Amino acid sequence: MEGQPVRKIAIPPTAPSSNTQPFRCGSNEVLLIIGGMGPVGSRIKAEMALGLTSSASEFRKPNAVLIIGLCGGLTPSLPEGKIVVYTDCLSTEVANAPLRCSQSITDSVVALLAASSIQCDRSVGITSPRIATTRDERLALARSGATVVDMESYSILNAAATAAVPAAVLRVVSDSIDRELPDFNRALNDAGALDGRKALRVALGSPIRTAKLLAANKRAMQYLANALEIVLPSGFFAQAESPESQ
Hints:
There is one protein chain. This protein has a single domain (about 5-240), classed as Rossmann fold. The chain is built from seven helices and eight strands. It has helices at about 5-10, 40-50, 105-115, 135-140, 155-160, 195-205, 205-230; strands at about 25, 30, 65-75, 85-90, 100, 120-125, 150, 165-175. Helix 1 runs parallel beside helix 7 (about 205-230). The protein is globular.
């Protein structure tokens, strides 16, 4: 679902969909990589894409990484549909140091969207292996200093830093601090991804909350699509500085 806006930009309606071939978008050559849900799957895909594993030969090292998707709000000031770019990303693993996103890409994204009258907030994100389903869980995460939460960004940013590739995060708040979610944590497997059958049982047990969540996700994805149509063709990615120079 989160990759669908990129597919629409990349592929004419009459052409078959592909996630393995780069495409031209403005002056950029873009490759969409679906990292999957959770920190483990996203780390594996990121390390492959950035040439950090022996199985990475099919990928060329990119000039920059843009992490996209949905996130949860941890403060009332970030309602559903709000577009955010991360300045920094934290981890719920206490041993993991905060990671800083590329300042030049972040600044360029904010300025580019503002020029198109699209508001974009700078936020501190936190990556958690669990889904924050209640207000109390979100408030606990907010005590770290983060204002939004996701399940993948830290792993990808860490891989990008290891590969010395500048990276940024562009997400949309899909569930606000007050939205109660079905407890899909009961459907997570050891890698932090959803087990389909277990997730279906959770959804059937909370049909109204599930329907409202899906509707909120769909609305948020439209905001993300609008932002990506402006950001992806831009030429600032090739000029982004490496993490070592920040």
